[in-house]
Amino acid sequence: MYRTHHCGALNLTNQGQKVKLSGWVKITREHGGMIFIDLRDRYGITQLVFDMNRNKDLCEKAKKLAREFVIQIEGEVIERINKNPEMATGDIEILVDKLDILSKSEIPPFTIEDKSDGGEELRMKYRYLDIRRNPVRKALELRHRFTKEVRNYLDSKQFIEVETPVLINSSPEGARDFLVPSRLNQGQFYALPQSPQLFKQLLMVAGLDKYFQIVKCFRDEDFRADRQPEFTQIDCEMSFVEQNDILETFEGFAKHIFKSLKNMEFEGSFPRITYEDAMNLYGSDKPDIRFGMKIHELNNLVKGKGFKVFDDAEYVGGICAENCSEYTRKQLDALIDFVKKPQIGAQGLVYVKYNTDGSLKSSVDKFYPEEELKKWAEAFNAKPGDLLLVISGKKTQSQKALNELRLEMGNQLGLRNHEVFAPLWVVDFPLLEWDEENKRFHAMHHPFTSPKLEDIALIDTDPGKVRANAYDFVINGVEVGGGSIRIHQEELQQKMFGLLGFTPEQAQAQFGYLLDAFKFGPPPHGGVAFGLDRWVAMFFGSSSIRDVIAFPKNNAGRDIMIDAPSQISQEQLNDLGISIKPLK
Amino acid sequence: MYRTHHCGALNLTNQGQKVKLSGWVKITREHGGMIFIDLRDRYGITQLVFDMNRNKDLCEKAKKLAREFVIQIEGEVIERINKNPEMATGDIEILVDKLDILSKSEIPPFTIEDKSDGGEELRMKYRYLDIRRNPVRKALELRHRFTKEVRNYLDSKQFIEVETPVLINSSPEGARDFLVPSRLNQGQFYALPQSPQLFKQLLMVAGLDKYFQIVKCFRDEDFRADRQPEFTQIDCEMSFVEQNDILETFEGFAKHIFKSLKNMEFEGSFPRITYEDAMNLYGSDKPDIRFGMKIHELNNLVKGKGFKVFDDAEYVGGICAENCSEYTRKQLDALIDFVKKPQIGAQGLVYVKYNTDGSLKSSVDKFYPEEELKKWAEAFNAKPGDLLLVISGKKTQSQKALNELRLEMGNQLGLRNHEVFAPLWVVDFPLLEWDEENKRFHAMHHPFTSPKLEDIALIDTDPGKVRANAYDFVINGVEVGGGSIRIHQEELQQKMFGLLGFTPEQAQAQFGYLLDAFKFGPPPHGGVAFGLDRWVAMFFGSSSIRDVIAFPKNNAGRDIMIDAPSQISQEQLNDLGISIKPLK
What we know:
Two copies of one chain form a homodimer.
Chain A: E1 18-31, E2 34-41, E3 44-51, H1 56-63, E4 70-79, E5 92-103, H2 120-125, H3 127-130, H4 134-156, E6 160-161, E7 179-181, E8 189-191, H5 197-205, E9 210-218, E10 230-239, H6 243-262, E11 272-274, H7 275-282, E12 296-297, H8 299-302, H9 308-312, E13 315-321, H10 329-340, E14 350-354, E15 360-362, H11 370-380, E16 387-393, H12 395-412, E17 423-427, E18 432-435, E19 440-443, H13 458-461, E20 470-475, E21 478-485, H14 490-499, H15 504-517, E22 525-531, H16 532-539, H17 570-576, E23 578-580
Parallel strand pairs in A: 3-5, 6-9, 11-17
Antiparallel strand pairs in A: 1-2, 1-4, 2-3, 4-5, 7-8, 9-10, 10-22, 12-13, 13-16, 14-15, 14-16, 17-20, 18-19, 20-21, 21-22
């Protein structure tokens, strides 16, 4: 037996007991004829003490220990003189009388401390050492408890977890698939699922009524910051439901998650905002509503006053930053630079300082006298001391820029505390989005998303206006989940395919097995999928999903710890009947 | 809202209530001016009744319903005249006054009944209809409850579930990997994991102490009956443990599973049988101990009596089939044919009838008079009425044949009831097995399995004799799990690699990242993995894992429902930088 207790277990109630502990040497120090060692395992740290006067040989052995050696000791629990109230074991130490070295360690490439000196690249290469650090281990523990609560809740609501296959067929729609050449069926390929979408719909046709799965999904993207080629979804589907049934069920779900993991309760329902309102008020379909600072359109107030920039603009709108009227020239210039960055793309920024003395001062005084600016201030419900920031241009682009500006101001003003959570539903997404390049409509969600009943007539007259039974779950400006009510009526599905430019043959080739299934009594159904990595990262207070994945890949899709992907043997290529094309 | 209740919910306490139900039409029948419909959903069946005298139009509409139509009805819960005590809802029926058809169904290709008329191929093609059948749905429900209990138990013992990556590196050892060409790193490939073995060991180096994961694994095998290219493991690893710690932990685990899913309790510990005993007593390293009928070696008794077959044999041994002395010539011939089948491979079968009158009659009377046979009978502890069955030849081959014969006799005598469960541990597996073809040793378990401390000296003198800290968990003759204590000492690991014929360079190339990790203080650790599909299938009373997988593949590795794998586009091949070799 390697241990009687773990390293977080002992306290004064164990005083006088003979114990056996195992763990990692965190630190050793000598002091007045004694050697002290902090012994660490997953559960905590226990101080060991070796007394020169008691056992010189043992002390000599202990002196040779270095950081991260794995040792086993036997000794007696004694009361500490210098107690450490910060530690669970801080009242005691172990007076050691037996020491075994279980394995040695080279000097680790970075310190195993809460704040390490290792950069991300190095920590990823030695991820097994990184995980020894408290913050990383705690992230994995949080993830474990998170999935446990997910399962507990959904099980209690009669959802069944079903594993869907990983080796499936490639589907040309959407993002790129990872492909797997078949050895037994040469020339053919499996694909790894981007989501179990079609399978969960089949499970509804199969009558399972309530399905969920915590499941790996795969997307062969050109990697961007904070995307992973493999990621994990909480995938859910229900039968005989309308949109409101889904929202209510998963509002209960989210509340359970908040309560059990963050001990947070929410009064009443989560806000539900239409897509249209979200765009108009926040410039985003995933608004961060931890703070107000809503966008106001100013077209009516600002046009026709001789300022060509506004007169020519499709849209003029802005936000009101409270108590920022004293922003310096330098701060204002920084904001102008911020909105002009290519990824934000505004042409400029007009500001109005509503000074504490009640006067108003803007960067466009030439065109707008103080009484005009007063009207602007009223539109924002601004008060003396506030700062108005106004952007103009194309509507969508300006709204998006205002969204970025609003978030930036939220950051500057400390309004985006990562321990405050503001969940909401965004509903009534458009069914279709227009692809200007290919002059055709795409499904905004996917081709099985149902239109709102009251908008069905618009399909023939103004398809871009049709709203879908589609919804996103958003927390703090992050899209944590999304879903839709699916089409279960054959005629409507055919109409949708027509709208999306699929010939019946193409639809059959691509979705044949789902369409076949729909010939045998599909129930009305809908669902939602949540991004586990993202939600856990948010609860962990991290902006990167890599922090909550045990072995993440880097932005080039490589696992730098195991150095994957890698070359394979010619024999393996031969087995698969494929060859590698020479690079052009 | 589609329903106020599901189809298994209503009983006499609901009498008089107005309800709304949705579900599938299971069957319709007319009787005396009434139309009766069984409405089915996941939760049960409720009888609907349409009364011609009340509402003729409604009845006309109901008459047009066919099997598997999805409908929604409103009506009143009334007491049934002909109650059905077999059904939860058997005391009531719904007098319908509103009917909506939610979707229609073609005639399903097989009947949606507990005993269907569909063959397996057809049922797999239309798996979404197959799952509507009670037995298939119940298998998936059982699997859900099983994984839930696995997680509950392991969580309560402080195991953390950690997701390990699916896109990893190919490892040339063991079975063939499925490979995934990398688009961003052309000419390089990911592999899908055959198990998370190396990652779980890294998590121990990382100090996680207790890890588990219910995880998909992949093996590109030439498919045999009841193998699937993707399968699910319950994968576990612990630090600071010896073999006994693992066996005790997972005995508790197994007992929890038996108790919670089968309501079965076991007195005391599960039997632990050494590999050697298992081979000698059962001819198998996964003995079915639901019944005795152990194998006895007879070499000492039978040799030197002039029967050349036995004299020349390395091994003579047999089993005693109780109360089978009256087996007919035909039955005995069938047994002889059975053992001579190529996959069993015995040369023949000698039998001794211990007649109820106390006389003994054998197929080798010429060489062995009755007093000799008496000694055989004593060796078996046989009694009048029993039948001895004896096989001779090479030792290993004969033992294996006796195992098959024993299982066959167990079947014939009804000793293998699939509602009886006899779990055990098989321990002390050999560390190495000799590969006659390549004249080298292979690791029986894997190259990180540790030898028994007391056998370490044998590594240099007689490596084939070294026993490993390796164990299998066996239920009813099926290997349900297996694992080992790993090597954490560098010198021992190097020695093992030498024994297995790895040069240091090869070892580094193949296991480099684990060996690197082991430089930084690996703890002693070990683990076990259980085959989820197999264990659930056993609890479900099925011999095929396909029965407990929602969407299984066939023996050629094809998903015949979605017709995967399939061809991909030239554009996809170009993206990946690979080409398909023409078939030779």
